[in-house]
Amino acid sequence: MDHMGIHYNVWIMLLSYVLSVTASYSALNLICQVPSSTARTRRLWLLAGACVLGSGIWAMHFVGILAVRLPFDVRYSAGKVIMSMLVGIVFCYLGLSGALAQRMTFLRCAASGLLLGAGISIMHYVGMSSMKMEAEIHYYLPSQSISVMIAFIASFMSIMLIGRFKDSPGFNRWKLYSALLLGMAVSGMHYTSMQSSHFAYDSWLGSNPSLLQTDVILLMGVSLVTLFMFGISGGAVFLDRHMLERMAYHDPLTGLPNRHGLERYFRNWFLTGRPGAVFFVDLDRFKSINDTLGHDIGDMLLQEVASRLLQSVSPKGNVFRLGGDEFLIAEPDFTPEEAAEEASRILQEVKKSYRIEGNDLYVTASVGISMAPEHGTDRSSLMKAADTALYTSKDSGKNKFSMFDQEMNRHQLRRMSLEKDLRKALAQSEFMVVYQPKWDSLMNVTVGLEALLRWRHPEHGIISPAEFIPIAEETGLIVPITYWMLHEVCSQNMLWHTEEIASVAVSINMSARMFESENLYEVVEEALARSGLAPQYLELEITESIAMNNMEETVAQLSKLRNLGVRVSLDDFGTGFSSLGNLDEIPVNTLKIDQVFIRKSKMHSKKAIISNIIAIASNLNMEVVAEGVETPEQIELLQSLGCRVMQGYYYGRPMPVHELGQWFTENAAAV
Description:
Layout: E1 2-4, E2 7-8, H1 10-31, H2 39-66, E3 68-69, E4 74-76, H3 78-99, H4 106-129, E5 131-133, E6 135-139, H5 141-162, H6 173-195, E7 197-201, H7 216-241, H8 243-249, H9 259-270, E8 276-284, H10 286-293, H11 295-312, E9 318-323, E10 326-332, H12 336-350, E11 354-356, E12 359-361, E13 364-372, H13 379-395, E14 401-403, H14 406-425, E15 431-440, E16 445-457, E17 461-463, H15 465-475, H16 478-498, E18 505-509, H17 512-516, H18 520-531, E19 538-543, H19 544-548, H20 551-564, E20 567-573, H21 580-583, E21 590-593, H22 595-599, H23 604-619, E22 623-627, H24 632-641, E23 645-647, H25 657-667
Parallel strand pairs: 13-14, 16-18, 18-19, 19-20, 20-21, 21-22, 22-23
Antiparallel strand pairs: 1-7, 2-3, 4-5, 6-7, 8-10, 8-13, 9-10, 11-12, 15-16, 15-23, 16-17
Helix pairs in contact: 1-2, 1-6, 1-7, 2-3, 2-4, 2-6, 2-7, 3-4, 4-5, 4-6, 5-6, 7-8, 10-11, 11-12, 14-15, 16-18, 18-20
Domain MHYT: 8-200
Protein name: Diguanylate cyclase/phosphodiesterase with MHYT sensor
GO cellular component, one term: membrane
């Protein structure tokens, strides 16, 4: 048995190192796509990187075998050859996945380097065991330990560098350094192990005919694997540029770029020191279409809106869908005048009728505009400014556009501050209830009170309900506030009864949110039971929009309350969205004429409307109350038309409890 040294072809050795570095760089380039990808595509990028790196390590190993000059034939076990490649891919996947954690620690880097080094080493020895030849390989353990340590240390150092470039899909020098270290780990481990291995030649050892022939077949296998490796890299790049990029950066419903596409657009193209405009577009009343006609119709409507927005923008403009019914338009090199002109065009296009599945649909939009660089020089600032302007458009009646200014910013900051303070106002007892009398102008007595909410802010004083009630509605805080108010009003009214100061019904305004909770009956019943107040002394005021929204459910809840004995009044009648054909179906005791008609009662048209409302109430056996009465002329007109119960500053302003008691005494008005 002869012991032989090993001789190498230097050029093939150099080729093997270049192959391992190229495979490493390609794999690292692929896994750099992981941090910016969606959850669905991250594993695909990671698997592609592991396949490229694992097959690159495998190819380098067998190219390294080809660099060895041996005096005998070598055959290979096909099963072990394939197994060695699979081992390399699996360990590369585990090592690279650990290296891409958001928060990298020394221990995590060490674990990832250990897995990668183990993959390189195990692949090497499985590959060596696949060799069938007329010789036996003897490994010298200390030298082999050094080769394994080279794989571990170089892999660890390479993993340590990943944090410097994992968010950079393009060329990065740290990525190149990491690839060079990985190439060193692979080739260093291989050649150190081979150099310390001894081949003991035995001329009588036979060959197994079921094994693969060497050199030509091995070279073909390595070539195919190399092509496979570069095929994955090229295919992944193609997939990224076309399919996966579209999945990650485009909205599947409308085909428009999504939030990820928006971020990339702003980062790469929009903010380059040039002026531009950002439009926030939000559809008005889109939720009602979804709720009434279904989400399929809603999705088709969104597709039509997206198409119209694309037609409305300039050739340089870009339209993005942010989610739901929110769109964003970016227009580079735009002036405020051009932005205003385009916003008007958008509003006109969006509000045209839509014919979808046999339905004629009408929808409007609200638009907020911010300008670069006046309102910001980064994406976040411009979007925030445009969003603030959008709120202004919504608050001022919808189907409008608004250009951002600093006054809007102050308004938005105040709104955010009030929303934050509103969340703790109830716990800190900052709310109070004031009461405004309802006066029978013929009998000259008080026949009721309306309870109104006030907020005593510790810094800003009394906050107008017109300012904080919409915030409470939007955030849902109106529900616990109304619970508190019900208990407060019922207890106070019971106290007036006990002290024989007044014996009248007190009305409380109800929010649509209270009907959404579907436990209004239980809440009212509990408030009455705790206070001991008879149900007929509590009245709930609802608006027309509440009555018409989900009418069947609303009527069912109101009917239960009416059966309990609680009174119901329809507030602001004539100003909301309602159908006279449904009015008789709503369980209502009282119609309240809105003050907008009373203020303009000298106009013949308003007088006619008031007269008709009173006639409707009379024919439906409902009581009628006129709001906003301030002059004797208004009183005289209302009396002549048949309205006797009135409410307004002429008879009494909203008063806190301690003033109301004195007012009762002075007016001798208790019934």
